[in-house]
Task: structure prediction
Amino acid sequence: MDAIVVEELTKRFGPVLAVDRLSFSVGAGRVTGFLGPNGAGKTTTLGVVLGLVHPTGGSATVNGLRYGDLRDPARQVGAVLEATSFHPGRRARDHLRILATAARLPVSRVDETLDQVGLADAGHRRVGGFSLGMRQHLGLAAALLGDPEILVLDEPTNGLDPDGVRWLRTLVRTLAGEGRTVLVSSHLLSEVAQTVDDVVIITEGRLVAQGSLAEVARRAANQFSVLLRTPQATELRRVLAAAALDVTVERDGALVVSGATPDAVGRAVARAGLTVYEMRPIDHSLEEVFLELTASREGSRR
Amino acid sequence: MSALLRAEARKTVTTRSFVLIAAAAVVYPALSLLPAVLAPEPPAVDGGTILEVLRGGADVLLVAALMLGILAAAGEYRHGTIVPTLLVDPRRERFVAVKLGAQAALGAVLALAVTAVGLVAGGSYLAGRDVSVDVLSSDVVATVAAVAVVTALYATIGAAVGALVKNQTGAVAGALIWVFTVENAVPIVLRDPGLKRWLPGGAADRLLHLADPSPGMTNPWIALGVLAGLAAVLAGAAVVAIKASDIR
Result:
C-alpha cells in the first residue's frame, strides 16, 4: 500500500518547467528521502502533494485522494514546509492552539506536542524571538498536532545545529517506529542516509532514481574506479581499451579506469605482462553516486 | 465552520497589531471629548450631541476596522501562515469566507466596545452640562446598530482587499490613500457631488445618520447595498484569485 502516489506530475511556472512528468510512490510505514539539488523541484512537488500548488498536469494523491479531498487532513498528514510560516508577534502556544482549534483537536495536544519537540518551556514566548532551529521545532509540533499517520518534511534540517540534526533523526526514527510514513526532502543524501529506508532522487524536475537505500548503496558499490601508475602508459591504455575499459589520464600521468573492478583491471594487466607500480580501487561514496545522478543534464529542461 | 471562525478570531486577537489598533479605536471617543472639556468656552450641546459623539468615534473605528481586516488577510501571505492554515482546511473558498466572517464579527464587537465607551464618556460629559442622555432611546440604539453594521462591513471589505492584494504594505497604503484622498477627490474631479453616495464613505455616512438624516440623503437601504455589494464583489474576486493561485 502506497501512502503517497505521484503520477506523471508536471508543473510549469510561466516559461520554467519546475516538475517534468514525475512519477514515484511512497510506501506506507516507510521513511523515504526525497532528494535532489536545490531547485530540482522538490518543494514544488511537495506543494502539489499538499494541495498548495496546482499541477499543470498529472496528479498527486495521499491515501488515494487528492489532499483537498481528504477528510480531516490534519489527522492524516502533518507537514513542515518552511520555518517561516509563523506570525512573529504570536506566542508559540497560541500558534498551535489556533491550528488545534481549526482542526477540532483537543487543546491538550498543544502542550503534548510542545513537549514532544522540546519547546515546553518556550510556549509562552513570541515566535519572533525564536532561532531558526526553534522555528523548525515549532513547525514539527504543528505537524504532529493531529497525530498523523503521514509526515511530510521539507528540508527539516535547515537551521538545525548538529545536536538538532541528531535530535531530528532520532525523532524521525521514533515516528517511523510507530508505523508512520515519513517523506523527508533534502538536497544532501548524507543528511538523511542514516534515517531513510527508501530514496526518490530527482533533478531538474525529473526522476533519476527510486528504490531502497540499499539498492542505491549497491549501485555505489558497483561503481568502482581503479587508479594505475605505470611506466608503460601508452601500452597499458591500448590494452585496457582493447578490453573495452574506459580509461582517462590524470594530470600526474596516472590512469583511471572507470566502471571496472580491480579484478578485471588486474587480469588485463597480467595478460599483457606490463609493469605496474601502483594499482588501487577508488571507492565511490553514496554521496558521489547521488551527485552523479543529480548532475545537470544540459539542455534537458525547456 | 464554527471551529474555523473561533480559530480565526484567536488568530486575530493574538497579534499585537490588533491589540494596539483596537485600543486606539476604543479610547478615541473619550479622547475626542477633551477639546470640548478643556475649551474656555464649551460648545453648545443638546440631546443630539451624544449621536455626534458616537459618529465621531466611528470615524477612527472604520479606518481601524479596515486596517485590521487588511492585516488579518494580507498578513497570512506576509508571514506565510496561510500554509498551515490551508493544510488544516484546504478549501480555499472557505478560507476567504471564514476570514471575512471572523473579521465582520470582530468588527461588530469592537464597534460595540467603542460605542459603549462613547456612551459612557459622552453621557458623563453631557450630564456635567445638565443634558440627560437616554441610552435606550431609539435614536441611540439605531446609531449604535448602524456603527456596528458599518464597522463589520468595513472590516469585511478590508479582509477582502487584503486577500485580493496579498501585499500587506501595498494594501494598507492603497486603502489609506483611498479613504483620505481618492474618495473625497472623485466627486470633485468628476464635478458630481451626488457621486459620493455611491462610494463607501458616503454610504457609511448615510448609515451613521440613520437616526437623524441630513436633508437630501439617500435611502439607507441603498447605502447598505453599496457597502454590502462592494464587500460581496471584493470577496468574490478574492475567492477566484486564491482558488487560481499557487501558495508558495
User: Anything to note?
Assistant: The first helix of chain A runs from residue 42 to 49. The longest strand of chain A covers residues 2-13. Chain A touches chain B through 35 residues (CB under 8 Å). Residues 298-302 of chain A have pLDDT under 50 and may be disordered.
